[in-house]
């Protein structure tokens, strides 16, 4: 199916799950270009309200009657096969297209597509590149996996040839994209409900770099051996970065509370000094990925430095939620063992008295397949409070539970309890927290409620 189908702007395009961070951005692109758009979701939200203000028909709840005069239905991999709108579209021969393919078609309309991939760090790096390109007034279109204050949401509609988006590897969806710059942050085990193993994941990234044209660039982290292996097969230009290895290297690193500063060298030559307001070694690597992409786009050094200096995390990425009675509350999206580790390691440089971590595992398959890795992820907190697993798109088969995870974590000597609900977790930490402590909620579900309840109490 080609973009020719979208030439008739009188034909309506319907999005199943339009309130999602990726779907809403695509819907906004179409609305901005004069297309008729409708969409459905389980609940209303700020995102659906914003789209409605832009002229989108919004339906709360999924029903076949939502597909009135619709010519194309866009859906995501997370939509179950028994969704009534999906079934109706199939039975009535309405054109269907998954989100990734549709995003790929929209990318075709831009020359400088920057696609940020990797197991984790995509949203932060995409946000950093967004800050830099906006500082340089490149007027980019931006699709990011979290709300970013500088664009007042999770998408921005530009009128230039610059398009910045995350490129998720789940079910190989990023293979439907058209990157001019493909960034690979890291490659680790995840989404094992689809991939066989880490080698299968690496193969997907090898395919991803083949999508980049010969005059384009693959920008990859040279501190990750699997990324290095993937880049060997690139037919395009390559630019590597890292703290230990790469063309682009961070040196003279200083960690300063919730931030850091460091010098950036390109092939041995000092380019500039960078100051970040976000913590940890992992954000230095994210910044290097953003710097590498910016250099490829010929963005001046001054704009790069200024954009990164003003960068504040997207919401849910080490987001400061507030302070109460001398207790700091932070929320973070980490839901993979290695991401949890680096998040808690970064806290060590912040001089809190005690660190109380509330973690909500995300999906049964991830918790089961990476079980042993999760067990060893919480050594840098003083106490761990585990919520039940957030099911997301999955059903509980009984193969794994938070209780099982808690038992194994306690065996390692980490102080850990299982909480039956968000309120139980909040009341427990409320009885423990004192001035100078940190309460950090971690996970991709709704664990943030615990910190919010504490602040509102």
Quick description:
The protein is α/β, with parallel strands linked by helices and 457 residues long. It has helices at residues 21-32, 46-53, 84-91, 99-107, 122-135, 198-210, 225-231, 281-296, 301-309, 337-347, 364-369, 371-375, 402-411, 422-432, 448-456; strands spanning 12-16, 36-41, 57-60, 70-75, 95-98, 112-117, 141-148, 153-156, 162-166, 181-184, 217-221, 237-242, 248-256, 259-266, 269-276, 319-324, 327-332, 355-359, 383-386, 416-418, 438-442. 32% of the residues lie in helices and 26% in strands.
Report on the structure:
The protein has 457 residues and is an alpha/beta fold. It has 3 domains: 3-100, Rossmann fold, CATH 3.40.50; 110-309, Mur-like, catalytic domain (UDP-N-acetylmuramoyl-L-alanine:D-glutamate ligase), CATH 3.40.1190; 319-456, Protein-Tyrosine Phosphatase, Chain A (Alpha-Beta Complex). Helix content is 32%, strand content 26%. It has 15 helices and 21 strands. The strands form 3 sheets. The protein has a 10-stranded mixed β-sheet with strand order 8-7-9-6-10-11-12-13-14-15, with helices on both faces. Strand 2 (36-41), helix 2 and strand 3 form a beta-alpha-beta unit. Helix 5 (122-135) packs across helix 8 and helix 6 (198-210) packs parallel to helix 7. The longest helix is centred in the middle third of the chain and has 16 residues, at 281-296. The relative contact order is 0.09.
């Amino acid at each position: 199916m080609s973009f020719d189908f979208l030439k008739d702007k009188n034909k309506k395009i319907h999005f199943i799950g339009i309130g999602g961070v990726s779907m809403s951005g695509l819907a906004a692109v179409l609305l901005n270009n004069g297309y008729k758009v409708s969409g459905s979701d389980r609940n209303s939200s700020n995102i659906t309200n914003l789209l409605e203000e832009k002229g989108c028909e919004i339906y709360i709840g999924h029903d076949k009657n939502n597909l009135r005069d619709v010519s194309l239905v866009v859906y995501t991999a997370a939509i179950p096969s028994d969704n009534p709108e999906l079934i109706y579209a199939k039975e009535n021969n309405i054109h269907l297209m998954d989100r990734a393919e549709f995003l790929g078609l929209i990318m075709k309309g831009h020359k400088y597509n920057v696609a940020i991939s990797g197991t984790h760090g995509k949203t932060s790096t995409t946000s950093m590149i967004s800050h830099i390109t906006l500082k340089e007034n490149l007027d980019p279109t931006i699709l990011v996996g979290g709300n970013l204050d500088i664009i007042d949401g999770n998408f921005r509609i530009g009128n230039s040839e610059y398009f910045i988006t995350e490129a998720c590897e789940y079910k190989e969806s990023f293979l439907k994209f058209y990157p001019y710059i493909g960034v690979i942050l890291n490659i680790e085990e995840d989404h094992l409900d689809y991939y066989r193993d880490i080698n299968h994941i690496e193969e997907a990234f090898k395919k991803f770099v083949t999508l980049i044209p010969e005059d384009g660039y693959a920008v990859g982290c040279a501190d990750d051996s699997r990324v290095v292996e993937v880049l060997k097969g690139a037919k395009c230009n390559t630019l590597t970065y890292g703290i230990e290895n790469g063309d682009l290297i961070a040196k003279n690193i200083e960690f300063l509370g919730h931030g850091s500063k460091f010098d950036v060298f390109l092939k041995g030559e000092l380019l500039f000094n960078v100051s970040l307001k976000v913590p940890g070694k992992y954000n230095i690597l994210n910044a290097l990925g953003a710097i590498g992409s910016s250099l490829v786009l010929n963005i001046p050094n001054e704009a790069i430095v200024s954009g990164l200096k003003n960068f504040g995390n997207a919401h849910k990425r080490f987001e400061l939620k507030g302070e109460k009675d001398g207790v700091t509350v932070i929320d973070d999206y980490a839901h993979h063992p290695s991401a949890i580790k680096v998040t808690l390691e970064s806290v060590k440089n912040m001089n809190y008295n005690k660190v109380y971590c509330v973690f909500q595992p995300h999906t049964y398959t991830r918790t089961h397949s990476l079980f042993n890795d999760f067990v060893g992820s919480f050594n840098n907190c003083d106490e761990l409070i585990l919520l039940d697993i957030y099911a997301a798109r999955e059903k509980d088969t009984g193969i794994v539970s938070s209780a099982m995870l808690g038992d194994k974590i306690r065996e390692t000597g980490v102080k850990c309890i299982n909480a039956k609900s968000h309120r139980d977790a909040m009341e427990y930490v409320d009885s423990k927290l004192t001035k100078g402590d940190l309460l950090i909620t971690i996970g991709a579900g709704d664990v943030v409620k615990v910190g919010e309840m504490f602040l509102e109490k």
